């Protein structure tokens, strides 16, 4: 593949983008569009059933399931179906209503109808239906499922009220879409998780608590704004505890801890650890998005490997294999990758790592910030993420139901934002 030609094409493509990127995208580090397609506007998630997500398990695990437990097939493999609830709150609801403590490997959107795999410890567990979920037993496996056993997700999305139904031109550009982290990673309309994460890695735990309690956006209801305004003054905490709605359960936990006299660091620990980790991971994601936007703006190709790039070897279009440094050898089945910031991050000669280190300096942080001595359970080492969005089996119908598969860790909404180019992503269902 001619990398110089690809770079020239990428630069020309970004220079001809006429549509402005919404401000909320920019706040998440997503600063440009990568396709020339005009966009069809419209909306998603008008009903939960309009956004269907099915988790895909790797074949070797799926094919080796026993309906009955024995000394070999010892680990229950559960299926969690839910509507109108995110995965973290689904876990809590199932624990409260069924008494079963489950573990899931991926976090699924609340504004969707989703199906994902789960596991639990011990032989005794209860399946059944809760207010927003259905937990069922698929069977028993020889070993516990791990994150590496999840191959990706299959989506079926209905787009309501588009400007037009013909998206054939878009299909030709799907390969140009970058693998940004979507708005869900940052809290969607509230867009706060990375702001909290930034303060945590800087060990400003008081500021992290204040941002989580008080931060508002244009999408907040008036009642929510009033609640959060009161949280600016600790003298109001007792009254806020009486007024705060059920949906703000994490804020309630924080306020209760503060009223009990706990320090800010310990108050943060009242939030479940899987959600606390999201704060730091969201800040990682913001830096990744920011760096990827900058490189795309400069015309850097993301679909082919250049010398000294880190690259993943594709086992197939849904599975990333070995990570390697590209040295002008055979580039077939390779996709470029970028380091994620973490305490093991080191500036390399690669084009993406150099820019990421500059952005980190602009943020006044270094790799060592991601080792949090005071809250070691939130420390992150780093890792790598592929740069192109790997879209498989894309199809669409005349009434604009789009279907596709993407690897685990990628976001369907990143493809949909390029297809729709909504003026207001939140009001369009993102």
Question: Would you mind describing this structure in some detail?
Answer:
The protein is of the alpha+beta class. It folds into two domains: 1-44 and 159-229 and 271-430, Pseudouridine synthase; 50-153, Alpha-Beta Plaits (2-Layer Sandwich), CATH 3.30.70. It has helices at residues 3-15, 23-27, 59-62, 87-98, 168-171, 193-201, 205-214, 222-230, 237-243, 249-259, 264-268, 273-297, 351-362, 412-420, and strands spanning 51-57, 75-83, 102-104, 113-120, 128-129, 133-141, 150-158, 310-316, 319-325, 334-339, 384-386, 392-396, 401-407. Strands 1, 2, 3, 4, 5, 6, 7, 12 and 13 form a nine-stranded mixed beta sheet that branches. Strands 9-8-10-11 form a four-stranded antiparallel beta sheet, with helices on one face.
CATH superfamily of the largest domain: TruD, catalytic domain
Number of helices: 14
Q: Major β-sheet, in short?
A: 9 strands, mixed
Question: What structural class do helix, strand and pairing data support?
Answer: alpha+beta
3D shape: globular
Percent range of helical residues: 25-40%
Query: Number of domains in the coordinates?
Result: 2
The radius of gyration over CA amounts to 22 Å
Distance between the termini: 35 Å
């Amino acid at each position: 593949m001619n990398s110089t030609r690809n770079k020239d094409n990428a630069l020309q493509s970004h220079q001809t983008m006429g549509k402005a990127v919404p401000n909320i995208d920019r706040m998440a580090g997503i600063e440009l569009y990568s396709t020339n397609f005009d966009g069809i506007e419209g909306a998603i998630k008008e009903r939960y059933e309009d956004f269907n997500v099915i988790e895909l398990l790797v074949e070797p695990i799926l094919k080796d399931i026993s309906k009955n437990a024995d000394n070999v097939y010892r680990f229950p493999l559960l299926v969690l179906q839910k509507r109108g609830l995110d995965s973290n709150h689904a876990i809590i609801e199932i624990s409260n209503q069924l008494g079963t403590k489950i573990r899931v490997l991926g976090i699924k959107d609340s504004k969707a109808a989703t199906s994902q795999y789960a596991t639990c410890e011990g032989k005794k567990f209860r399946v059944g239906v809760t207010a927003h979920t259905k937990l069922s037993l698929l069977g028993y496996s020889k070993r516990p499922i791990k994150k590496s056993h999840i191959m990706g997700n299959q989506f079926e999305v209905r787009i309501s009220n588009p400007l037009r139904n013909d998206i054939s031109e878009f299909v030709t550009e799907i390969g140009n879409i970058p693998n940004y982290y979507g708005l869900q990673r940052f809290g969607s309309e509230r867009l706060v998780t990375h702001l909290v994460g930034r303060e945590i890695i800087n060990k400003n735990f008081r500021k992290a608590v204040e941002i989580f309690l008080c931060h508002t956006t244009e999408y907040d209801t008036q009642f929510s704004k009033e609640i959060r305004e009161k949280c600016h003054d600790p003298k109001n905490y007792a009254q806020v505890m009486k007024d705060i709605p059920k949906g703000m359960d994490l804020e309630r936990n924080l306020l209760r801890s503060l009223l009990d006299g706990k320090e800010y660091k310990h108050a943060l620990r009242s939030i479940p650890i899987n959600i606390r980790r999201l704060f730091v991971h969201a800040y990682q994601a913001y830096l990744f998005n920011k760096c990827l936007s900058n490189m795309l703006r400069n015309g850097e190709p993301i679909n082919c490997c250049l010398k000294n790039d880190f690259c993943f070897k594709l086992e197939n279009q849904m599975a990333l294999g070995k990570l390697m440094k590209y040295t002008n050898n055979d580039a077939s089945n390779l996709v470029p990758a970028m380091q994620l910031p973490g305490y093991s991050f080191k500036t390399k000669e690669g084009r993406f790592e150099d820019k990421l280190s500059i952005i980190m300096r602009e943020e006044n942080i270094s790799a060592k910030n991601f080792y949090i001595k005071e809250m070691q359970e939130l420390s992150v080492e780093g890792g790598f993420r592929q740069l192109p969005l790997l879209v498989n089996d894309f199809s669409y119908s005349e009434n604009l139901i789009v279907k596709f598969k993407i690897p685990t860790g990628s976001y369907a909404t990143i493809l949909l934002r390029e297809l729709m180019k909504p003026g207001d992503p939140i009001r369009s269902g993102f």
